[in-house]
Design brief:
Belongs to the cytochrome P450 family. Its cofactor is heme. Pfam families: p450. This is Fatty-acid peroxygenase. The chain is an alpha+beta fold. It has a single domain, classed as Cytochrome P450 (Cytochrome p450, Orthogonal Bundle), CATH 1.10.630.10. 49% of the residues lie in helices and 10% in strands. It is built from 18 helices and ten strands. Strands 1-2-8-5-3 form a five-stranded mixed β-sheet. Strand 1 and strand 2 form a beta hairpin. The radius of gyration is 21 Å and the shape is globular.
Length: 405
Amino acid sequence: MDRTLSLLTEGYAWLPNRMRDSTDSVVRTRLLGKPVLAVRGPEAVRFFYDEGNVHRHGAIPAPVLDTLFGQGAVHTLDGDAHRTRKELFLPLLDPGRVADLAEHVAATWDEAARSWSERPRVVLFDEAGVVLTRGVCRWAGLPAEAVDAEPLARDLIAMVDGFATPGPRHLRARRARARQEARMTRLIEDVRSGKVTAPAGSVLERVARHHDVPEAPLDAGTAAVELLNVLRPTAAVSWFVAFSAHALHRWPAHRERLRAGDGAFATAFAHEVRRFYPFAPFLGGRTVKELTWHGESVPAGGMLLLDVYGQNHDEKLWGDPYTFRPERFLERPADPDELIPQGGGDPATGHRCPGERVTVGLLESLAVRLARLEYTVPEQDLRISLRRVPTRPRSGFAVTGVRVP
């Protein structure tokens, strides 16, 4: 039976609901008319990221490409083509560059927070999107005159918010992507023509000059897609900022260790936010041959899904998965094949999101700032629906009476 409709109605619970009846953490079903094998667990992560089993080319549905990633993005490539394109991103994400981005965003946050005290009500999800966008644009070397952070932030958030749903959110996401791809294409062309100077070694310069093949740089449209694939995931950290505020509201005892500047605890808190709160429900790839996992099979040309939300809440791995407990990551380090909110495998050679380090680094910094910020949480709808993908607190987490220490 095709389960596309139930996926749209059940959201994050769709795969976990079906895994509940499986003793081997494997499910066979159909989506969009295609046979699907869904798997879960550290072994399954290694199976899923084996390029001999799964390709990404042709696997990502067009509606997702047209909103979240962009046509021709690194996410659609395999093998040497994928590794060559990924070389564009990896040097930007070494620890020094990540720390530099975190400093840019932290300075932007501090600047914005001072203005929040003058406003009667602030929605942290919305404000975080603007802060993150403004900070990453400065870090990436985009000229200030070419960037209006607030509308750009709205478009970047819309791209993420509408990728997994039909209807108005999806249409907003398509329009946002088309608008920003056109703007970033013009910016790339201006850099190449000399009309705009990109700072040496900046993201903007690297993207504008990147070659997949020695003979020619990326076409300007594809370069714009990849520039947005630096800006968009950074803006998407606003989801985790809202979740962090939600966690500190529900479990305020964690504030003291964050306020004290306990770096190890800040890292553990960032990992637990990413594990506990829902973001990506699953990841998918196209099977390149008939695959069998724990007695269930899927033919070549079918789909292999990795149950991200289910694995991050698997009792076999976490013991108490529905308890928010950052200390679990102080007791033992995060295993990259167990904790997979942004995919699994090796980011240097595989499809694990290279921006994961950025997400963790930004959350470490912003969680501390959130814990130190004083505010009142008024009556509002803080429910987080598992049917909405991607989900977030319904109110966006509004605060009043902001006071900067």
